[in-house]
């Protein structure tokens, strides 16, 4: 029984990974209602993703520096071609991407 659960967990993690460009929300969205119905909070560890179920926890790892952060998907987006995830300002700060605004990342479902 234990081996089967481990195999399922490994297969699940292996199939849900995405590589691309991350961006972060502008300050003007502070307090706006997210797709999950809660107000957006720049200081929360949250993110927007176009397809993952709301409430999914993902690890976002910078491909160029190795910095990582875990965030909760609570909104939809980004709506800019080529971007795969839109992070809160706090999450972007933890990844060291505030100055540039964009970073290459690997997103993995936890």
UniProtKB/TrEMBL annotation:
The keyword Heme does not apply. Residues 18-106 form the RlpA-like protein double-psi beta-barrel domain. The keyword Lyase applies. Keywords: Cell wall biogenesis/degradation, Lyase. GO terms for biological process: cell wall organization; peptidoglycan metabolic process. CDD domains: DPBB_RlpA-like (cd22268). GO terms for molecular function: lytic endotransglycosylase activity. Coiled coil: none annotated. It comes from the Bacteria. Its EC number is 4.2.2.-. InterPro entries: RlpA, RlpA-like_DPBB, RlpA-like_sf, RplA. Lytic transglycosylase with a strong preference for naked glycan strands that lack stem peptides. NCBIfam families: rlpA. Belongs to the RlpA family. This is Endolytic peptidoglycan transglycosylase RlpA. It comes from Billgrantia kenyensis. The lineage of its organism: Bacteria, Pseudomonadati, Pseudomonadota, Gammaproteobacteria, Oceanospirillales.
